[in-house]
Design brief:
- By secondary structure, this protein is mainly β.
- Helix content is 0%, strand content 57%.
- The strands form 4 sheets. Strands 1, 2, 3, 6, 9, 11 and 12 form a 7-stranded antiparallel β-sheet that branches.
- A hairpin with a 2-residue loop joins strand 16 and strand 17.
- The chain is globular.
Length: 274
């Protein structure tokens, strides 16, 4: 019998305003199969009741906002981590994802409005916000993971045909399966891996669009395209690594230099070792 991965999925289906530094409270539990991940529907706080490694993804559909710094929500943990997802536009969805390491039972996490003013959720959609979390350490096999960000000064330039220079390791597996080495991501094991990324883009110089590709050993394995010169680009890809030592890069193939805001965010999560 296959062992189910512990998970929790939440939604918010009512509109309303989230004050600055306020927690977004989800009002609907879509699915849950474990007491290891519990949710308080009054406070909006998720608690991890076991040691492990957890992957989270979320989105917020905002209708209006008074913030001067765009749209910023962050996953905030009880031990001080802030993992932010941002957007320039105040009337469009914002999303984010994170790998959270839990070293002791009782660690909590919540989704907080980090903009400098309140955010009003959209009344024009059926679901105003969503969040999913699952335990990526539930397998008995050692599986690799990495979350990295580019935290360079505001609006760094990514030249055409060059890759994003990741410089901040948020989380990494203790086995050395996925590592960050001199801004390159190295996969030191065979297997199947899920890669997700998010790039806040300030502007392009010439082209009215942005185009980035996920390269593995120089071959394109995934891409994301945005038909606008500014906004948030997201993407994901499943890659199969057949030989250890694969080099993973997120490359600008727009035919133009692109100005990006920080943080540029990427996660690599091993699904199988075959």
């Amino acid at each position: 019998m296959n062992k189910m991965v512990p998970y929790l999925q939440l939604e918010r289906v009512t509109a309303g305003a989230i004050p600055t530094n306020g927690t977004l409270v989800f009002d609907t539990t879509v699915g849950s199969n474990s007491t290891h991940i519990s949710y308080n529907s009054t406070t909006g706080i998720i608690e991890f009741n076991k040691v492990g490694v957890f992957y989270l993804s979320w989105f917020v559909a905002q209708q209006t906002g008074l913030a001067t710094d765009g749209k910023n929500f962050a996953l905030v943990t009880s031990d001080g981590q802030n993992i932010t997802g941002s957007s320039h536009a105040k009337t469009a969805p914002v999303s984010g994802f994170a790998i959270v390491e839990v070293a002791s039972s009782g660690k909590t996490i919540e989704l907080v409005n980090k903009s400098d003013e309140s955010a009003t959720l959209s009344e024009r959609v059926h679901v105003q916000a969503g969040l999913a979390v699952f335990d990526i350490s539930a397998s008995n096999l050692p599986l690799g993971y990495l979350q990295a960000q580019m935290m360079s000064p505001q609006s760094p330039i990514v030249e055409d045909n060059t890759h994003v220079q990741f410089d901040d390791e948020i989380a990494a597996d203790p086995f050395g399966i996925v590592t960050l080495e001199s801004s390159d991501i190295i996969i030191n094991s065979t297997g199947t891996f899920l890669v997700t990324w998010e790039i806040p883009i300030d502007a392009t110089k010439l082209n009215p669009y942005a185009f980035f590709a996920l390269m593995v050993n120089g071959a394109q394995r995934g891409s994301s395209f945005m038909p606008l010169p500014a906004g948030v680009m997201t993407g994901s890809a499943l890659i199969v690594v057949e030989e250890a030592g694969a080099v993973v890069k997120l490359v600008n193939i727009s035919g133009d230099r692109v100005s990006v805001a920080h943080p540029v965010n990427i996660t690599v999560t091993q699904i199988s070792n075959i």
